[in-house]
Hints:
- The chain is α/β, with parallel strands linked by helices.
- It has helices at 2-8, 10-24, 37-45, 71-82, 103-108, 119-128, 145-152, 169-176, 191-197, 203-207, 220-236, 255-264, 294-297, 314-318, 350-357, and strands spanning 30-34, 56-60, 86-89, 113-115, 134-140, 160-166, 186-190, 213-216, 241-243, 265-272, 276-285.
- The chain starts with a helix and ends with a helix.
- The chain is globular.
- Residues 312-314, 317, 324, 327, 329-330, 334, 340-341, 343-344, 351 line the site of iron/sulfur cluster (SF4).
Amino acid sequence: MAELKRFRNPKTTQDIVQKIQEIATKAGQVRICHVCGTHEWTITHFGLRSLLPSNIEVIAGPGCPVCIVPVAEIDQAIELAREGKVITCFGDVLRVPGSQATLIETKATGADVRVVYAVSDAIEMAKKEPKKEFVFSAVGFETTAPITATEALGELPPNFSFLVSHRLIPPAMEMLLGVEDLQIEGFIAPGHVSAIIGLKPYELFTKVYQMPTVVAGFEPNDVLMAIYMILKQHHTNDARLENEYARVVKPEGNKKALKAIHRAFTVTTGHWRGIGTLDNSALQLRNNLAQYDARKKYHLKLTQSKDAPSDCQCHQIIVGKIKPHQCPLFLKTCTPAKPVGACMVSSEGTCRVWAKNVT
Ligand code: SF4
């Protein structure tokens, strides 16, 4: 609690904001990008953008792991549900649009789709109902991949498998640097992903792209401090990798979690909703775990289809090119109660964060 108070202390906030304002007078227009739904929540919920000088902009990149699950992978889950398999998933996956329907709409037609709070709940269900085939939709970045990995390496019942949609954050950050007209001048790297992967994967950004990169925690003062640290680097023209979240993130990451990921998965090319295909950005269960890979077990074909309805601007939101209110559907036909695009579905989606906190 004392720790929390320290990172929400208004006096500290004022001090950091003053430092940001001072250094910003010496900077031109600076655009900083974060890639984390929780960072967007902190920034939006606490109104941090309103504390920044007008020449300092913070944009949200692809930070929501649910938002970027491609249509084709939602379609695969729906296909399995329609065939009679029990699909288990976290609640926010239920309403992610596939090409024709969502999982919750499929459930309404009689399919057995169940929300679980942990993978272990789904495994327990499979053990209790051995005559049914259970599939868990494993969605998430490096933060949740170790849980899937640990379960996959453990004792699983034969009627259980994973539909893996795990993605890796550093390749998405690198992709952002190639987006036309985006002109990012610094990265705020995600705290909980970094707690797993450590600092090394970000060295690319400072060493190859000379991009100031600061790993940040999730309290308002964490984020403001990260912005200040980036501006200082920008001012001295000295791109470095810094760790504002040292109370949680170790330079080497979480070795146990990384070992589990390495033992369970290989890294492969992945499709991202709103982005397209990125090399070395997805995880796939290793061949020795193929019996738990739903795609192999049920011989699923991956047919990439169009990401979203024509007016939906999720592809622009996901790469930080526009803000939610610039989408013509925002809070008109697309609302948290009835999302049209994936960015309005999850509590980590940028449009949903804005819908709940800005309006
Ligand atoms: Fe997509 Fe809805 Fe956001 Fe528009 S408001 S970009 S349709 S999620």
